[in-house]
Design brief:
alpha+beta; eight-stranded mixed beta sheet; globular
C-alpha cells in the first residue's frame, strides 16, 4: 500500500487520537505506550515545542502519526537521564510518540515516519539538531527494531520514565 506522509494539521488531532486509541488497544501490554492528549498534540503540531507528521492511506484515512518534542532544557528532557549538559540538551530532539493502526502494520510506517522526522529536523531553521533520543519499552520488539534498524543505539537500559515505566533510551547522532 502506498502511504502519503505529510505534516499534521489541527484538523487531524481527533483522527490522531483515534489512531492512538486503536493502536494502544491492540498492544499486548498497554503500558508499552504512554498516551498523549489533545492539548499536547495541538502544542506539538508545528512550532517551538515540536512537530507531528502523519501517514495517510490513498483513501485519506490516517494510518499513523509521529510526534517530535523539542524539550530543550526542560526538567523532563530525556537527555537528563544521559547527563547531557544544557548546550547538548538544546540540540537534542525527542522522537516522542508513534502509533500505527493495526490494519496498516507491516508497512514500516514507524521507520518511514522516523526518517522523515529526522529529515525535517535537519532542515529546521531553529537547529542545529545534533542528536535524537527516544524511549521504547524493552519488550516492544517491533518498535525497538524500527529504531535500531535505522541507526539508533541503546544509550540506557531499563530506565524508569513517565512515572515509573520501564524504558530503554535510544540515541542517534544526526
Amino acid at each position: 500500500m502506498d502511504f502519503r506522509i505529510r505534516p499534521a494539521a489541527a484538523a487531524d488531532v481527533p483522527q490522531i487520537l483515534a489512531v492512538m486509541d486503536r493502536a494502544r488497544a491492540a498492544l499486548p501490554v498497554p503500558e508499552w505506550f504512554v498516551a498523549d492528549d489533545a492539548a499536547y498534540l495541538h502544542a506539538h503540531l508545528d512550532g517551538p515545542l515540536g512537530f507531528c507528521l502523519v501517514a495517510e492511506t490513498p483513501g485519506r484515512s490516517l494510518a499513523a502519526y509521529f510526534t517530535v518534542k523539542l524539550a530543550g532544557t526542560a526538567p523532563d528532557a530525556l537527555g537528563r537521564y544521559l547527563s547531557l549538559d544544557d548546550q547538548a540538551l538544546r540540540q537534542t530532539a525527542q522522537m516522542d510518540s508513534c502509533c500505527v493502526v493495526p490494519g496498516c502494520r507491516g508497512h514500516s510506517l514507524e521507520g518511514r515516519l522516523l526518517l522523515e522526522c529526522e529529515a525535517r529536523l535537519r532542515s529546521r531553521p531553529d537547529g542545529p539538531w545534533r542528536r535524537c533520543l527516544a524511549t521504547v519499552h524493552p519488550d516492544n520488539l517491533a518498535s525497538l527494531y524500527s529504531f535500531l534498524h535505522r541507526g539508533y543505539s541503546i544509550a540506557a537500559e531499563d530506565v524508569l520514565c513517565y512515572g515509573g515505566k520501564r524504558r530503554h533510551i535510544l540515541a542517534k547522532l544526526l
